[in-house]
């Protein structure tokens, strides 16, 4: 049974999708005015993992993540670079795909709508809100009236409107009726890109984008809405208010929010200037290491970003790869007398690891514990390979264990480890051929040639081990 911490309810609860076997999920995407930093990479990686796990559990997942390609920062960037809004968007969307492909996001079947391509849908929602008296127009701006929605506002962020009201600054120039009201539509200013609307030329507010796009692709009520915890207020609170009022649906049923990435205890953010771009980190560490690093903590906990942590992730990924490569090498060994008890014990460890992995992921996507259960199996697998020769039965269980680790790590967690023998087939065949010649030399007691071959291969990094009846090699 999958259980999810639902921010809306403030607790972990059983996940029951609207439609059996199907999950609809919307996650707020990046504002594409710059390269993404590692803090932005966390939700991208985590929610991709959520999708993968739901699919592993047999659900058909409809996953939508938008691009915000119009807002103040975008306009500022366009002016700075002397290019159009669309050119800014195209440039950083391309960069986004370039960077996130390296951390293995599953793009297949995913929808990535752009805000500027849904202005019509946004205008329609805003018109409905005005008609239902949940919004009003002032000087070409349109605002959502929090007072008219009132009773539920603050439900997600667990704040009441009085506290919010007293906490907000009242600007004398403000044309809003109440400080809590937020913009649905902004009248065009000089030099800004704009679209025609019933209220004159202008552009949409940020919050209405997500309401319009989620409604278009997932309907007025859908299963999961995700994003970073910094989006809870005001963005998600406002999405809920305007969507419920406009469509009459329940909007999102489960709200999932990931924690921050910290640097020396402080939240990584563009405004604090303590951020690391994902592409900078990827120059030093492979995507699989970055992804493993992100998933090795529970998603709701903060992660400390440091070289130390990344190096630990790198070592862990190598441990997994080395063990799986050893399995491949072990499979090359000839059948011998196995150890039935050792096989049984490995089979038991495999079942336990599977159960624990699913239990961990089922309990609010606990990737950190899930990874732990895989390492328990790796330990048992290494012990098995150290101590036992393979017979048919051992071969079968070892293959099953290795297959499960690959499925969990590569398919579910999306950590794209490489499990190949470190040399290509051709090289591998060549080494085997050279060893055959060496074997002939040994039969002829030509020790000089035999040693020469061994030493030269050694210089090239191929280590030879003469066994009782077989010579094996490794890189
Ligand atoms: Zn959003």
Describe this structure in words.
The protein is an alpha/beta fold and 475 residues long. It folds into 3 domains: 17-132 and 205-295, HUPs (Rossmann fold); 306-412, Anticodon-binding domain of a subclass of class I aminoacyl-tRNA synthetases (Four Helix Bundle (Hemerythrin (Met), subunit A)), CATH 1.20.120.640; 425-474, no CATH class. The protein is built from 16 helices and 15 strands. The strands form 5 sheets. It has a 4-stranded parallel β-sheet. Helix 10 crosses helix 11 (307-332) and helix 11 (307-332) runs parallel beside helix 13 (367-387). It is elongated, with a radius of gyration of 28 Å. The mean pLDDT is 93. The site of zinc ion (ZN) has 4 residues, from helix 8.
- What is the CATH domain class of the largest domain? Alpha Beta
Percent of residues in helices comes to 40-55%
The CATH superfamily of the largest domain bears the name: HUPs
Biggest beta-sheet profile? 4 strands, parallel
Shape: elongated
Cross-sheet strand order for the largest sheet: 4-3-9-10
Distance between the termini: 45 Å
CATH structural fold name of the largest domain: Rossmann fold
Count all strands and give the number. 15
What percent of residues are in strands? Answer: 5-15%
User: Architecture of the largest domain, CATH level 2?
Assistant: 3-Layer(aba) Sandwich
